[in-house]
Amino acid sequence: MENFFFKGQKFTPTIDFNGETGILSIEGQSYPEHAEEIFAPVFDWLDRYLQTPNRIIILNFELSYFNTATSRRFQDLLETLEIYKSEKGGNVTINWHYREDDYDMLENGEDYIESIDLDINLVSVKHSEE
């Protein structure tokens, strides 16, 4: 299957979904005005990708900030993967990267752990001075 790539801009994340390896990445910041429109092609691609059962999927979140509208899209994305795991035998792992001093992002990851039946790893990343 073809890959999905969307180059992030000021208000949108970079989304890189590799159809061959099953490694899906969302990184950067996400606070677009119309998150539904930005993420619609992501869900279209994912719907096609998840037609094949028993895939191994690793989803990496590496975000510095996201808004409430994006949070809803992420919840939908995780719920879609949760259904895929239970109905089509998918092996799904989520890696939630957060900067070690970003307690809000850590809390967001913890909230997803409580709401979704998927393996979610909280990955602390050292903040480098730039």
Automatic annotation (TrEMBL):
Listed InterPro entries: SiaC
Pfam families: SiaC
Domain SiaC family regulatory phosphoprotein positions: 7-124
Name of protein: SiaC family regulatory phosphoprotein domain-containing protein
